[in-house]
Specification:
Rossmann fold; 2 domains; eight-stranded mixed beta sheet; 8 strands; globular
Length: 242
Amino acid sequence: MLYILCALKCEAAALTGLPGKTVVTGVGGRVSDCIAALDLRPDDQVLNAGVCAGSEKGAGYLINQVISPANGRRFYPDILFESGAKEATLICSSEIVTSVEEGMLYDMESALICESVLKVIPPSNLAIYKVVSDSGSGFPSANEVTQLIRSHADEIRKIALLLAGNTAPVSYEFIPDDLKDKLRLTQYMRNELKDLEHYAVTADRQDEVIRLFARLEEEGRIPVNDKKKAREVLDEIYSCLR
């Protein structure tokens, strides 16, 4: 089943006739509650379509990375299809953005969507498409938002069809369980390690991660004996992959 998630009714209003089911999630904490009510299955697909802040009003982007400054997590939708759309990184802010950096995109719900749906579906079953509506000022009316999304409806439909047709299974866990056990990670850090595995697979850097773990074992830093050391190991791996 393909679910098309929009934060606002005025976004969803422009996407009639698409395959799957269009759902208005709302914003903030309501997003997680709405997604939980969908009862997602591992073979479902999710497309989040909506507006964002950026420097080039009217431009549309397929998102390849979502950054959440609130908790430092990063999410990587795995784009296995070729749509021809421009790709970009999206920063998810907990507050309304009033100014933007050149080349950066901002919204308020993408990280919540990623965090909720990627507990169930693989990154290859998630796509995010955003249309720039403002640059932090001169916020558009509901009607203007509908018109902006409608101007990209053909592109969004194309992505929806490609996503719905994506049935190739992809494995994103490649770090051996016995090695994970040696890290003594908290549940939060396990989620971070899962994000790291997702990134490594999408970037084809699995071998690099395994070599990093091997070096840390040779240096005697794995196994770890407390949460502080586990945090240091995880941070070093993140640092080496950036």
